[in-house]
Amino acid sequence: MDLVCAITHAGRVAGWYSRWGAVSLARDLLQGEAPFVAYAEGLHVLDPLEVMPWVSGMVAIDRDRRVLETWLDLGTLARSAWTAMMRERWPQWTIRVADDPCRMPGARPRPLASAAIDDVQQWQASVWSESWRQESVRSWCAEVGVVEARATLEWGNHSLWVTIVEDAVVRHDAWDPGTDCRALTVGPDALVAIVETRPALVDPLPWDGRFDWGAVVDVDRRTLSLWQRHAPFPDDLPTALRDAWPGWTVALVGDPTLQLRCAGLSPSAMWGPDTARELDEWFARLVGERQTGASILAKVAGAIAVEPGQRVTVTDPGSSDGPRPSDEAQLVDAYARWRAAHAPSSIG
């Protein structure tokens, strides 16, 4: 839940750190410029400015150019709604949501000494993504039968959606489960050749959460725009793409808006049957009671079983409680306008 804040003012960059500040970062930023800057400058001074491997949120605020860039955990639609509300709360500011804290302005990754946390996390990821996943698939196939399992996996369960624009002609292709964004590192010539040899998709592809990645390859303009449903992108992806696509403009974007436009689809194509409910629940959590390090520790302490006569003591987590909440009605109105503009008429 660690938070790193970098603020540029009068040409100088300063950093601050909070042990629990990332817990309610999305809500805290919605309080506006003055409250959030005052809050950030009351945190622990971070000198030199660096990004720890376990950081959960980061904000870079350039007050000279009025640019705010942040890295935080938001789903695709929630990110779009949050960004729209941020533009109202930070008027005349440029708001950007980054996909990697180490590439944000002013960030310098802290070198890992001997060990530890990064190596352990990589090991955990490999264990969960390989042995655990394989065992889960085997158990599921045994339960439902191989025929039904195969039919379920093959029915529209795609991972990568590729759109190619060439000579003003738009062509879409859906790649099978297990195909991730690294497939794009084959380069433009090979990618276009692969898509051209596959059966054409007659209908535009709807967005219903089946795609983890999407890419628009504009051959005419020599641009590659890539988005993914869950940030951040793999650390080595930007370098690999630049090497594989020399002379092209490569952009990692926050949502599939461009690809939907190429498919002739409105933003409402992103909505599934439960989208309205899920978004409303997300917004209710966002503007609800602010979580703090102390409140989280108190809940953990309450769940710890102790012997009679013993007591669990919660120590100060060393972080501020965040900026004072703003007028909630303004956020409700802003969210309602965004929801009305993006939701299909058949939903809520």
Short description:
With 348 residues, this protein is of the alpha/beta class. The chain is built from eleven helices and eleven strands.
Describe the structure.
The chain has 348 residues and is of the alpha/beta class. 36% of the residues lie in helices and 18% in strands. Strands 3-2-1-4-5-6 form a six-stranded mixed beta sheet, covered by helices on one side. Strands 8-7-9-10-11 form a five-stranded mixed beta sheet. It is globular, with a radius of gyration of 23 Å. It starts with a strand and ends in a 6-residue tail after the last helix.
List the helices and strands and how they pair.
Blueprint: E1 2-9, E2 12-18, H1 25-29, H2 33-40, E3 44-45, E4 55-62, E5 67-71, H3 76-89, E6 94-97, H4 116-144, H5 146-154, E7 160-166, E8 169-175, H6 188-196, E9 213-218, E10 223-228, H7 237-244, E11 249-252, H8 257-262, H9 275-287, H10 293-303, H11 328-342
Parallel strand pairs: 1-4, 5-6, 7-9, 10-11
Antiparallel strand pairs: 1-2, 2-3, 4-5, 7-8, 9-10
Helix pairs in contact: 3-11, 4-5
